[in-house]
Write a structure and sequence with these properties.
This protein is α/β, with parallel strands linked by helices. The chain is built from 11 helices and 8 strands.
Length: about 250
């Protein structure tokens, strides 16, 4: 593991004791590669209403601004910035049709699972696992049934479970209420994830994929939001946790 991945505040891990702690995962970009699902749905939706093909780099630029966790709202914003006002309901209907499919395979079927086989199973033997995602519950369920049907995440908090989505802290606060007494870490891949964690007072681990065209900008944003560690992908978290366990003598 490169040195930059090591926790900047070791005392946080001294409090994060196995069997009494909860690792909260975001889904998109952390557990599931959504390059060809949600991100492609944004590209196709914008093209449908504006006739223009946007780049994945442009999407990441908006994500790095913060406040664009909702891909429907993001698609509408990009279209507006391209000079086309789009009815929100019409846009949502189109986005969902291509994402979920109309009786046939939608873009959601292009997703791949990022954790290597056995990773989450090993983590679950020492730590509780939960999910806080900006997906709707039925969308989260599709991918979890497909890739992680034997894993237990408790609780799972989705967009339709909270009044305010990220970067508001509502989802993490709901998890804390359901699992009182647990020390929590939140693992996410956007500045909205980091700000949600900061607002909830939950230590944050940032995922900055080397595939991101704006990776250095994202790393800088995570540092500004006081991420305790920044990793290339979710598979590095096991080494980080093992390192801290050995250092603390658990």
């Amino acid at each position: 593991m490169r040195q930059s991945a090591i926790c900047a505040n070791p005392s946080i891990f001294e409090e994060l004791r196995p069997l009494d702690s909860l690792i909260v995962f975001d889904m998109d970009g952390v557990l599931a590669d959504v390059t060809e699902s949600y991100r492609e749905a944004v590209v196709q939706t914008v093209k449908r209403f504006t006739g223009q093909t946007i780049s994945r780099d442009l999407i990441q630029q908006y994500k790095n601004q913060g406040g664009w966790n909702n891909d429907w709202a993001l698609s509408q914003k990009i279209a507006a910035d391209l000079g086309v006002a789009v009815d929100y309901g019409e846009l949502v209907d189109y986005f969902n049709a291509i994402f979920l499919g109309r009786g046939n395979g939608g873009l959601i079927e292009r997703e791949t699972w990022l954790p290597r086989p056995g990773l989450l199973e090993r983590i679950s033997k020492k730590y509780g696992m939960a999910i806080f995602t900006g997906r709707l519950r039925h969308e989260a369920g599709i991918s979890l049934r497909r890739f992680a049907s034997r894993l237990q995440f408790d609780p799972i908090v989705c967009a339709d479970d909270v009044a305010r989505g990220k970067p508001a802290p509502d989802g993490l606060l709901a998890i804390r209420k359901k699992r009182p007494g647990c020390k929590m870490l939140f693992v996410g891949d956007t500045v909205d994830d980091a700000r949600s964690a900061g607002a909830a007072g939950v230590p944050f681990i940032g995922i900055a994929s080397r595939a991101h065209s704006r990776r250095e900008d994202l790393i800088r944003l995570f540092e500004q939001e006081r991420a305790i560690a920044i990793l290339d992908n979710v598979n590095e978290i096991e080494k980080l946790l093992d390192f801290q366990e050995n250092r603390c003598g658990y």
